[in-house]
Design a protein that fits this description.
The protein has helices at 15-25, 42-52, 89-94, 97-101, and strands at 5-9, 31-35, 67-71, 77-82, 106-110, 124-130, 137-143. By secondary structure, it is of the alpha/beta class.
């Protein structure tokens, strides 16, 4: 994936601005796949995205529930997936993820590497990498075509 955008984040305080930029850059996109190591900041960025979309509920990692559901202020549904505990794409299909991904709501997916074939064409991939400082992160954002299921 080639990055459409590269953003250097110096602090977690800048994530609301980054989230706003992502949503404004990809206003018609609904599926976002978040890549990064454990503790990179995937859930923290998703919290900021949900905040920008007007979610009032507490946003948390769905590590054990696999999917958390929120409602944006305009009534659009937001589905936050964490595939970390899944072992295969079959398990992702069994959760009903494919139905959510084609349902028109926002879908934020952590650990999409587990089931790349489930991602639709046009998924926005966001990679979070360590920066030069302890709290600095490099966020790479790219628009790509989903992996084929063969």
């Amino acid at each position: 994936m080639a990055a459409d955008n590269e953003i250097i984040v110096q602090s977690v305080l800048a994530l609301d601005e980054v989230a706003s930029r992502i949503l404004n850059t990809y206003p018609d996109s609904r599926v976002f796949a978040f890549h990064g190591s454990m503790g990179a900041g995937k859930t923290t960025l998703i919290k900021s995205l949900c905040k920008q979309l007007g979610v009032d509920a507490t946003v948390s990692s769905p590590t054990f529930t696999i999917i958390n559901e929120y409602v944006a202020e305009d009534g659009i549904y937001i589905y936050h997936f964490d595939f970390y505990r899944l072992k295969s794409a079959r398990e992702a299909f069994d959760t009903g993820a494919a139905d959510y991904l084609s349902g028109g709501g926002y879908c934020f997916i952590e650990w999409p590497e587990v089931a790349p074939e489930i991602l639709p064409d046009g998924t926005i991939h966001i990679s979070i990498l360590p920066g030069s400082g302890e709290s600095e992160r490099l966020i790479l954002i790219g628009h790509s075509i989903a992996a084929s299921a063969d």
